[in-house]
Amino acid sequence: MLKDRTDYLLDLDEILGPKMSARLPGFVKWFLKKRLHFKEINEFVMTAEHYAGVGFFDEALKHVDITYRTRGEENIDLSKKYIFACNHPLGGPEALIIGSIFKRLYGEGFKVPSNQILYSLKPLQEFFVPVNVMSGRQDRKITERITRMFESDSQILVFPAGLCARTFKGVITEMPWKKMFVTQARKYRRDVVPVHISGHNSRWYFFLSWLSRTLKLKFNIGMLFLVDELFKQTGNEFVITFGKPIPYTTFDSSKTDLQWADEVKNTVKSLSLDNGCTPNM
To answer: Going residue by residue through the chain (281 aa), what tens digit of pLDDT does each one get?
Structure first.
């Protein structure tokens, strides 16, 4: 049980797990700590007014000097339970921004499936549900958590692409969307709100993702730099656009769930029009 600030500090050995941690030489661990900004994050946790819980989102955004503005909030009925389906351009800023928005709209009543690196941010663990974004295979414990999440009264935001946007032939492209949110929307009778967030990662991140594909690695090296990418966004403003809810009854047998997922993805892409930013998917 977490009791004080020190319990919320990042611990690389805990993130990697005992087996992986034992295999890595000291200089590799040093490099990972530097790229994951362990020192900056842990210093922030030790000095922040809100070092855990829902207050952490706003304070973290202020610390890294990231701002945002929203469009389409009038489309949301605060009395209804939704699945918010969002594009995945960045990996870090959108999680903090969405958390800030949902804090204002819903207090603590929201959940976000996340990768293991985001879940390792202990101050925000209560809002994240870890999923295996690399293989798509979930162990029983994680599957049970996901089921409880959809059965709860919490608002749920998902990134159906699973992985951050990458470049293909020089064009920043959202990865194909998985169908789970469509299946769960129908099963739990939750309408789907399409959400678009502006922005993109650096050329360095895109190079590492390309290198991972070229070398046919199972693990995207770029993921290790997502926290670094967050700090590179200092001073930037993002635009978050909420579309009109899509009734869960829309997802009928006229299309497969994958086809419905792709259609929602295209709806999200259309939300980037007139937001004053360069399209990023």
So the answer is: 456 788 777 787 777 777 877 888 888 888 888 887 888 888 888 887 787 789 989 999 999 999 999 999 999 999 999 999 999 999 889 889 999 999 999 999 999 988 766 777 788 888 888 776 444 455 677 788 888 999 999 999 999 998 889 998 889 999 999 999 999 999 999 999 999 999 999 999 899 888 988 888 777 778 778 888 888 999 999 999 999 999 999 999 999 999 999 999 999 999 998 776 755 55
In the numeric block, the tokens 């663990």 are attached to 125
**Alpha-carbon gap, residue 156 to 40, rounded angstroms:** 29
Distance separating the N- and C-terminal Cα atoms of the chain: 41
Taking the model in full, what pTM does it have? 0.86
What is 165-226 written as a DSSP string? -EEETTEEEPPPPPSHHHHHHHHHT-EEEEEEE-----HHHHHHHHHHHHTT-SS-GGGGGH
Rounded to 10 deg, the angle between the 180-188 and 140-151 helix axes is: 50
